[in-house]
Structure formats: structure tokens, C-alpha cells
UniProtKB/TrEMBL annotation, chains A, B:
Keywords: Amino-acid biosynthesis, Aminotransferase, Branched-chain amino acid biosynthesis, Pyridoxal phosphate, Transferase. Belongs to the class-IV pyridoxal-phosphate-dependent aminotransferase family. Its cofactor is pyridoxal 5'-phosphate. This is Branched-chain-amino-acid aminotransferase. NCBIfam families: ilvE_II, PRK13357.1. The modification N6-(pyridoxal phosphate)lysine is found at residue 197. Its EC number is 2.6.1.42. Pathway: Amino-acid biosynthesis; L-valine biosynthesis; L-valine from pyruvate: step 4/4; Amino-acid biosynthesis; L-isoleucine biosynthesis; L-isoleucine from 2-oxobutanoate: step 4/4; Amino-acid biosynthesis; L-leucine biosynthesis; L-leucine from 3-methyl-2-oxobutanoate: step 4/4. SUPFAM superfamilies: D-aminoacid aminotransferase-like PLP-dependent enzymes (SSF56752). GO terms for molecular function: L-isoleucine-2-oxoglutarate transaminase activity; L-leucine-2-oxoglutarate transaminase activity; L-valine-2-oxoglutarate transaminase activity. It comes from Litchfieldia salsa. Pfam families: Aminotran_4 (PF01063).
């Protein structure tokens, strides 16, 4: 793709910023957004930063009917020295294009998107909160906009990035969460769309999440869709267990989302020389190991919560309390290291962060 | 729900109607639409017929991110005596509410929707084409509109009905189609959302459809997501085979959409005393029966195409030509009977059609 110029159109109507102590997740949005349009023949074109504004679409637009959408989620942090730091954004943009391929959406130039994101962050820099645990959540997404009711890939799309200053994702913060192992509903199956970050996977998860919530659990742990035996992932996190001295996480397959945090955790554990493996792991193995006193820790990993210790797991009416319901040593160390690197407070051994130059 | 008054707001800007000989599927829409809003506390409210107009939504609206959508598809016909006929609309509205339940969307009053649809048809009556094979396609759908990035059911929804005058769904018309049996990608799995009419199922199907099209097939036949062995359905049709004198269709399960046309075909076959059964049927059984010369017919059933004979099936590189690639006797009889009832030309033994009174 030839270099495209990003047009910038600033808002003269600045919104009031939220109180930094009262940030929740994904409810408040900044003053601007970044958009790129796609149409057959023209390709991705007209990259621009504009005031945050409503989208106007024909009621027959495909996004309202056939779920051909993809999205991403990453964060920007304000370092204490004033730099804006992005955590491994290229991993998210690579994954966006993997999702695009699965959903028959034309891939987008990752460099262009990264430039657009940087310009957007420059413009909305004042929206990045600084207090511990806070950050600016970045939501890139693509919607099909063609007005046509045939079931087919759209010929028109809109790519957008919106920004939202956020506090902790779970109301528990870094405190352990209670997780319900779902053995009726299925989120994704081999041959399906689980590996892609597409709306339908999340729509499919709502019913089970509702059940888990009503039983007093904060998240669902999904099992494979074929045998309902092997552990896959949590609602919006990958999952790790420390069993008998070794950290284990389910090996990637077609129905698990490859988390950027998961990948970072694996690298850190190897760097620290903590035994770790990616393999198939059944829910039975976890419960059996627990009965032998071998389950030392469990935690989820994801952009929103970073590291989320699991204090309790419930499967088929049996509940197990892990590490006395307290945050484990490894979960704590990972959380401190990752959030430290993200904020620029801890040495970034792996060159994970990208600093956005503000002119 | 107490009776709600449907507000009517007519358009003064009538669009030009398409040439009845050049109707395609789902590209042209009428002058009006019917909408009902939902918000927490208020429930479904403000039913109204308004000019067909764009929808304006915040970029953070859930519909753009998490696929919590449902839809329906049915048709209105203009009888030769001038009456507007609807084919079994209550079945579609029942199914809409089943889909709602699976997707954690509040159910909607079916009577209210039917009244709204009738009002809308009255207003846009002139848009209903009359030529053979044409009809007015009706698309009810629900989208989540809350601006919030948490993965949770929305607190706000919009229900809408839009109308589109249509010709034949497949360019082949009633002529036989070539179908590719998909054994890599999966549309839906037990425990998933296959039984619901929700966007994600269709998004998941695009990649396989793309492959089938590039190989010269017009549709995909889906197998079960667990063993990839049992036949489920076609992209937007249920499937029937006539094997050794008996008509067989896959029994309903959690991953098959219960088609209104499927149900009507089953009733007609029973009425005609043609042997018919709903049961598990493997793709192997079909190919084995074929090699013994026992596969007499195959056809798909769905609102868009009504009956679509299958002339050729391809599975794992093996192609079989059914009934010499010609429309079978039963497919033809079903097509003539169903379209005849729908148009008011054939006695409606089952009271399937509802006539809309126009004042
Ligand atoms: C289904 C699912 N699994 C895992 C993750 C974790 O991925 P990441 O670490 O890239 O945020 C997410 C969230 O992005 C998710 O939605
Ligand atoms: C996946 C799927 N299966 C089957 C059908 C056929 O259902 P109906 O006969 O109600 O149109 C449809 C279309 O509505 C569909 O989308």
C-alpha cells in the first residue's frame, strides 16, 4: 500500500473528563476517533482523525444482520515521565488481520493503523489517566456497511478506533475472582471462529455468563466444544494453572483466542526460568490434582484485567478454593512486572512498549 | 403487555419502485419501516411506522462490537384478488423470541409486532410485486444500542422491520443447485447458537461459502460440529433427501435452525401420505445410498428460495449428480403447492396464510 496521508479534523467541543477516581470500564469516550473506509476497487482509503461522533447507517447495513465484525483491545499508559506508552500494539494489529481473514474482511495496512492510532493519542493525550490501575483502553473495530440482505461478505467496511479512559475491569481489581466451569453452553469449536476476535463469539457467551453471574461467579471458564473436557479460556482472558511446580496453559488451537498477555506471560516465565508448558489440559486433571493438593495457583491473563487470580473454581457442583482464595506469588509477580513495564516503571527487557512521540 | 398504540408518520418523499422484471434479493427497500425501542425499566415502547431512514448510533454501541443481534425473514405476497397474504408469520415471531432468549435479549410482544407489520404493509402496499416468483421480503431484526464496551447484555435495543421487493433468491430460480459438503469449517455446534437466528452464525459461514463459490458451488451443506459426520442444513435452508421411497430430513437439535418452510414441507408430505422421517442422517449414508442407486431426490427448503432442488453434491472430492441434475417430482409438487398457497392460488388446507386488511 502506498503511504496515505492522515487527515486531521479537530473538535471544538471538548467534553468534560471523568473523575480519575471514578473510572469504570468502557463507558466514557474521548473527543476524537480514527477512521478508515473500505470500498471495492478503492481499497482502504481516507484515513482520518475526526471528532468523536455518531455513525449513520442504512437499516439494511450488513452489520445489523450478519455479524461480520472484528475488533481488538489494547491499552495506552501515561508514564511518570510524561511519555505515552503502547504495549505490543503490533501483536494486536497482526491479530486483527488474522480475524479479518477468518471473517472474509479485507486485511488492513498495519503501519497505517499504527500511525493513525499514534495521531489519535497525540490529539487526545489529556484523556490518558495516570493513577495506578488506570489506562486508556483502545478499541479498534471493523464493521460491514453495505446495505444488502444477501448472506455474503460486504463490499464496504468502516474501520474505527475509539478510546476510553478506564479503571479496573473487574470490580475485584487484582483480588481473586470466582469462576464457573461451563459444561452446557459452548463458546467456540474447532472449525468455528473462536480464534478470531469477532462479535458472534461474545454474543454466544452471554447466556452462560448470565448463569454464572446469577450463581455468584464473576466469569465463565469454557471447555472445548467437542468433548467438553479440555480447558480453553475464560470469557475475556486466557487461563494458567500452577500445578505441582509447573505453570500450565492450554495449547493454542482453532477455538482459543491467542492473547497478547498470554504470550507475554509465557515469555516472562521462561525468562525467570519457571517451568512452564502449553498443552492440552482437562478440567478433570485440575480437579484431580487439586484433590492431591497439587494446584498451587490459577490466574487469567488479558488486556483488560492484566492478571486476574482465580480464587475459586466450580465444576459440576464441586467447588475448589485455590491458594486459600488469595493472590498467588506468581500471579502477583506477573502483575507487578507487566503493569510496571506497561507504565514504564520496570525495565522493558523485551522491547514490548512503544513510545508515542508527541510534538 | 398492555395494548400499545402504533404511531404512524408517513413519508412525503416516495422513492421510485424498481422494474418488476429486474428484482434481485435484498437491495431495494420500501418507503417506510416499523420500529419499537427497548430500554431497561420502560420495556418495549414507542412502536411506530416511520419513513425508511438511516439509524444513527454511538460508535461504542454494542451492535458494532459483540454481535448480540437476532433477525427473522418472511414474505408477503400480493394475491390476484388484491389481498396481501402473509405466510405463517406467527411461526417467525415465535422463533424470534426463541432467538431472543438464547441471546439474552428481552422477548417482544408477538401481537404488537404482527400489528406493526400489518400497518407497515398497508402503508407500503404498492411495493408488493405481483409477477410469478416475486414477493415482498420482510426483515424484522433487533440490535443492541447501548454505548458500553463491557461484554454483557445491552440495556437498550431497537427492533425494526424493513421491507424489500424481491425476485428469486438463487439466480438458478427453481433450477437445481450444486452444493458443497463442508468438512473443515463449522457453522454451529451443540451448546452454541445454531438454533437461533443470530448474526454470528452467518458470519461464521462466510469463509466456507467463499470456498464453495470458488469451486463452482452455490451453497454449503453443513455437518455437525462434533463429528463432522451428520448432516445439519444448508447456508440458509434446511435439507431433505428422498432415499429409497422415503423422504428424510435431519432431526432438529441445538445447532439446526427450525425452518418454517421445513415444518410446512413435513406437514404437506404427511398430508399427501408420502413416507417421511426426521432423524439423524450421516453424509456417508447419503453417498452409500447413492452408490446403490437409492437417492431419488434432494432439495433445500427456506423462505428465500421456498424449494431449491439439489442437482449435485460434492463431498471429499467425490461428486454425485442427483436425479440427473433435474428437479424431482416431489420438489416440484412442493414448490407449486407452497408458492400456490402463498399467493392464494391453491387451497390453504392448513390455514397458513393470514390476510392483511387494507382500509
Ligand atoms: C476470548 C478472549 N480470550 C483471551 C483474551 C485475552 O487476550 P489479550 O491478552 O490479547 O487481551 C481476550 C481479550 O482480549 C478475549 O476476548
Ligand atoms: C440457517 C438457516 N437454516 C434454515 C433456514 C430456513 O428457514 P425458513 O424456512 O424459516 O426460512 C434459514 C432461513 O431462514 C436459515 O437461515
Amino acid at each position: 500500500m502506498t503511504e496515505q496521508t492522515i487527515e486531521i479534523n479537530l473538535s471544538n467541543n471538548k467534553k468534560e473528563k471523568p473523575n480519575p477516581d471514578q473510572l469504570s470500564f468502557g463507558k466514557v469516550f474521548t473527543d476524537h476517533m480514527f477512521t478508515v473506509s473500505y470500498s471495492e476497487g478503492k481499497g482502504w482509503h481516507e484515513p482520518k482523525v475526526t471528532p468523536y461522533q455518531p455513525i449513520t447507517l442504512d437499516p439494511a447495513s450488513m452489520v445489523f444482520h450478519y455479524g461480520q465484525t472484528v475488533f481488538e483491545g489494547l491499552k495506552a499508559y501515561l508514564a511518570n515521565d510524561g511519555r505515552i506508552l503502547l504495549f505490543r500494539p503490533k501483536k494486536n494489529l497482526e491479530r486483527l488481520n488474522l480475524s479479518n481473514q477468518r471473517l472474509c474482511i479485507p486485511t488492513i495496512d498495519e503501519e497505517l493503523v499504527l500511525s493513525g492510532l499514534k495521531k489519535l493519542l497525540e490529539v487526545d493525550k489529556e484523556w490518558i489517566p495516570n493513577a495506578p490501575g488506570t489506562s486508556l483502553y483502545i478499541r479498534p473495530f471493523i464493521i460491514p456497511t453495505e446495505a444488502f440482505l444477501g448472506v455474503a461478505p460486504s463490499n464496504h467496511y468502516q474501520f474505527m478506533i475509539i478510546l476510553s479512559p478506564v479503571g479496573s475491569y473487574y470490580k475485584e481489581g487484582i483480588n481473586p475472582v470466582k469462576i464457573y466451569v461451563e459444561d452446557q453452553y459452548v463458546r467456540a469449536v474447532s472449525g468455528g471462529t473462536g480464534k478470531a476476535k469477532t462479535g458472534g463469539n461474545y454474543a454466544a457467551s452471554l447466556k452462560a455468563q448470565e448463569g454464572a453471574t446469577s450463581r455468584g461467579f464473576s466469569q465463565v471458564l469454557w471447555l472445548d466444544g467437542v468433548e467438553k473436557k479440555y480447558i480453553e479460556e475464560v470469557g475475556s482472558m486466557n487461563i494458567f494453572f500452577k500445578i505441582n511446580g509447573e505453570v500450565v496453559t492450554p495449547a493454542l488451537n482453532e477455538s482459543i483466542l491467542e492473547g497478547v498477555t498470554r504470550n507475554s506471560v509465557l515469555q516472562l516465565l521462561k525468562y525467570w526460568e519457571i517451568p512452564v508448558s502449553e498443552r492440552k489440559i482437562s478440567i478433570e486433571e485440575v480437579f484431580e490434582s487439586y484433590s492431591k493438593g497439587l494446584v498451587e495457583e490459577a490466574f487469567g491473563t488479558g488486556t483488560a484485567a492484566v492478571i486476574s487470580p482465580v480464587g475459586e473454581l466450580s465444576w459440576r457442583g464441586e467447588n475448589i478454593v485455590i491458594n486459600n482464595g488469595e493472590t498467588g506469588t506468581i500471579a502477583k509477580k506477573l502483575y507487578d512486572t507487566l503493569t510496571g513495564i506497561q507504565k514504564g516503571d520496570v525495565t522493558d527487557y523485551f522491547d514490548w512498549t512503544i513510545s508515542v512521540d508527541v510534538k
